[in-house]
Amino acid sequence: MNIILLGPPGAGKGTQAQRLVEERGMVQLSTGDMLREARTSGTEMGNKVAAIMDAGQLVTDEIVIGLIEEKIQHGSAGGFIFDGFPRTLGQADALNELLSRNGAELGAVILLEVDDDTLVKRIVNRAAEAAAAGKPVRADDNEESVKIRLMEYYKKTSPLIGYYYAKGNLKTVDGLQSMDQVAADIEKVLA
Ligand code: B4P
Fold first, then answer.
1. CA distance 41 to 80
2. Where AMP is bound, by residue (predicted)?
3. Pocket test for ligand 1, best of 4, 5, 6, 13 (most atoms within 8 A of CB)
4. How far does residue 8's CA lie from ligand 1's centre (Å)?
5. What is each CA distance from 133 to 125, 127, 137, 139, in whole angstroms?
6. Atom of ligand 1 nearest to the CA of 145
């Protein structure tokens, strides 16, 4: 089964994807992680990606789709968790095409619902915790970038909610609950 974790920045997509990897042996494909890796490459593409991410904007469909295409061509027995992808209608169409080309299907699209104030608090808190622990702080984890990331989400990503609802894949989970309760609700959806 291949699933998508959809939701605004800081909704807990990465957190829940890691749990699904541990519990179900699925393969996590996080475009955020792939892009953070690409930005350290020192290439022209990496530098472009870094500038866009730090500004809180979405990286171009062309770059993101290329990264995903490379990862899914070998398939995954336990299925893929698409974490933070797709984020635009163009990416959603490309994913349909890539899955059908690989003889695969899309199962649930799980929307994690969290209000804006909580999202900003979570992300600012993550930055504070990392700084206190002497760990690297994500350059886009500050209030100013988060507000731009939220605007990008409402403008470019939220149309995917209607898109997947119309296809019958959409399932909604209350992302305001504890991490354990969110995980339990996702398990119910996937049961
Ligand atoms: P991502 O890496 O995907 O990050 P995210 O949306 O900010 O976070 P996520 O929802 O995974 O939240 P997390 O679990 O970490 O994207 C970063 C950037 O990459 C984007 O802004 C964009 O520039 C670029 N990008 C990525 N994919 C792209 C694409 N497809 N197209 C174009 N550009 C793309 O949780 C956040 C915090 O909340 C953590 O501290 C966590 O511990 C906490 N938390 C989680 N669940 C909680 C809960 N239930 N209760 C309390 N706290 C919780």
1. 25
2. 31, 36, 57-59, 84-87, 91, 138, 149
3. 13
4. 8
5. 12, 10, 10, 16
6. 21
pTM of the entire predicted model = 0.94
Residue 68, burial from CB neighbour count under 10 angstroms (0-12, 13-18, 19+): buried
In this structure, CATH architecture of domain 2-114+158-190: 3-Layer(aba) Sandwich (3.40)
* Closest to 68 in 3D by CA, of 103, 18, 102, 23: 102
Are residues 112 and 12 in contact, defined by beta-carbon separation less than 8 angstroms? yes
Closest CA to 150 of 175, 183, 125, 118: 118
Residue 59 φ then ψ, to 5°: -70, 155
DSSP 8-state code for residue 75 = -
ipTM: 0.89
Exposure string of 31-61, with b = 16+ CB inside 10 Å and e = fewer, is bbebbbebbeeeeeeeeebbebbeebbbbeb
pLDDT tens sequence across 33-64: 999 999 999 899 999 999 999 999 999 999 99
